[in-house]
Design brief:
Strand order of the largest sheet: 1-2-3-4
Helix content: 25-40%
Number of helices: 5
Distance between the termini: 39 Å
Number of strands: 4
CATH architecture: 2-Layer Sandwich
Strand content: 25-35%
Length: 129
Amino acid sequence: MTRFPGVSSQPPPRPVVVHVSRAGPLMTVVLCGDLDGITAPAVVEVIETLAVSPVRQVVLEATDVGFLDLAGLRTLLRAHRLSARRGVRLTLHHPAPHIRWLLTFTDTAALLLDHESSTTADDAPNRRA
């Protein structure tokens, strides 16, 4: 493979696709794609709309999130803080095992995961000392 200066050999990130639905005080945000520093602002933008809506709970459906880096995790934590300030409960549902592992490793699983997803977080590898 020929390398060219300034050209990345990595494929571009899959943009996060956000689908939003509401049922009364519940907002479900379906995330699809990669959640990283490039794609994360779309998630924050959706969460910021809570200021003008009567939502009491936000579920981030993460089944189709293929990649989450630390910038993406910071975005989820920011979204959690924004929601909490508005009295809104925000949880992450059905993340892939590698995402559950990252949340467990960074001690953020209890903060972000719903009860169902957090019980399966025990399947993640043990945190290194």
